[in-house]
Amino acid sequence: MYTETEENYLKAIYKIAQKQGESSINTKSIAEEMGTSAASVTDMIKRLSEKSLLQYEKYYGVSLTKEGQKIAVHLLRKHRLWEVFLHDKLNFTWVEVHEVAEQLEHVKSDLLIEKLDAFLGHPKFDPHGDPIPNSNGSFTFRNQIPLSNIREKNIRIHVLAVKQHDSSFLKHLDDLKIKPGEVFEIIQFTDYDKSMKLLTKNGDQIVITHKVADAILVRPQ
Amino acid sequence: MYTETEENYLKAIYKIAQKQGESSINTKSIAEEMGTSAASVTDMIKRLSEKSLLQYEKYYGVSLTKEGQKIAVHLLRKHRLWEVFLHDKLNFTWVEVHEVAEQLEHVKSDLLIEKLDAFLGHPKFDPHGDPIPNSNGSFTFRNQIPLSNIREKNIRIHVLAVKQHDSSFLKHLDDLKIKPGEVFEIIQFTDYDKSMKLLTKNGDQIVITHKVADAILVRPQ
DNA sequence: AATTTATTTTAGATTTGTCTAAAATTTATA
DNA sequence: TATAAATTTTAGACAAATCTAAAATAAATT
């Protein structure tokens, strides 16, 4: 069994690897992700390396081993299932779920997580639209593209997920009534600043910047 | 905010005080409850004392302060609400719930616990029949007496709670189909060994020893 | 290629929670 | 009441996770 901190390091490394698309992760980026110093990261890296959870070459960064990856993915599964529980059953907003799930994901009981999964109806995606790995660690993939890629007007757009997860961004979207599951229509493109005007289901017209549109993943046609 | 270990000490001390009906708790009993050494207990006692969570007089044991009690009761509330969740929603048996709830009770979010309480329909008792304190820390009391106190035959007996919580005892009761919420009838008293024969709802006849009957709390007439 | 800058590692210290062994104190017993 | 037994505390050590400051190494720049 691993400590909560060890688990958090594995998760952080996995997350960085996903984002960067690279396998070799440097100390500094881990330190940033974990909100700690590079020195602390080096210490922890050595421990995790000795436990064969990651490969470590001095001065040249780390990469997760199969076992390390397995743990990280299992944590992701637990985190996202708890988020669904908090959102669907306890009526937390999709902005609020993350923080509490960060704690719940460390509860150690495989039975718990399998029963929770069943209780929730084996959901495939969390409230942010991120895929929930199954108990074997495999994800459900689906086609989704940034809203900013779409150039066609007057078609129904389905929001599937978001690329960013910081609460200020989520709150902004929430204020605009944009979240996974919602549907809207693009009614105007502005070439000048690449912003777009959307028509929401209840008739509201909202304008979003290119930066925001780029972080919203939608169903392609 | 307090560490998980600090919380567990407060809970242990509260539990011992309840059981013994005394306010002054000695080091040894805390060590036993926590599964650690008396030396470790002394260390922790000092810390908790400095944080004003308990009163400590060297060599003469400890007692919880108002603040210490408040934390212990809040933990009890969280523990028991999670037990209801695990039992009622996830179909854990009443034997299994305790261990997982031990972990869940340390998740820190008051919002979570209030939402969970509402989701569960504001339950007043957990799967073992123990009362769940409300958010102000007050318990629902009800009349309940040990089954061993009853001398009357051929009346409906309602099981409300149990006095012991170790899993071997719970498993034994579960095998006999006795648990809170069940109803049965006493059909025979044996003076010799103080055992009693019960008739369960589905027609089974079971015999329980005096020791077991003493740990079962039932609704008095 | 030499030097500056950025990154990483090491060294040494701190906190939390634990341990064992020994000393101190209280309680029980003769 | 003196001694033995039980309990509690102290002292010193250890592991986990962190920190700061300094040293080592790699990467970037002139």
Describe this structure in words.
Two copies of one chain form a homodimer. With 221 residues, chain A is α+β, with helices and mostly antiparallel strands. Among the domains of chain A are: 61 residues, Arc Repressor Mutant, subunit A (Orthogonal Bundle), CATH 1.10.10; 74 residues, SH3 type barrels (Roll). Chain A is 43% helix and 16% strand. In chain A, the strands form two sheets. Chain A has a six-stranded antiparallel β-sheet. The radius of gyration of chain A is 19 Å and the shape is globular. In chain A, 31% of the residues are buried. At the A-B interface, helix 5 and helix 6 of A face helix 5 and helix 6 of B. Chain A binds a DNA duplex (30 and 30 nucleotides) through helix 3.
Give the biggest sheet of chain A.
6 strands, antiparallel
Structural class of chain A: alpha+beta
The CATH topology label of the domain at 145-218 in chain A is: SH3 type barrels
Largest Cβ-defined interface: A-B, 18 and 18 residues
Number of helices of chain A: 8
Oligomer: homodimer
Uncertain ranges of chain A? none
In whole angstroms, how far apart are the ends of chain A? 46 Å
Cα gyration radius of chain A (Å): 19 Å
Within CATH, the superfamily of the domain at 145-218 in chain A carries the name Ferrous iron transport protein A (FeoA)
Fraction of residues in helix of chain A: 40-55%
Which CATH architecture of the domain at 145-218 in chain A?
A: Roll
How many beta-strand segments of chain A?
8
Strand content of chain A: 15-25%
**Mind telling me the CATH class of the domain at 145-218 in chain A?**
Mainly Beta
Shape of chain A: globular
- What is the mean predicted local confidence, pLDDT of chain A? 95
Helix and strand element order of chain A: HHHEEHHHEEHEEEHE
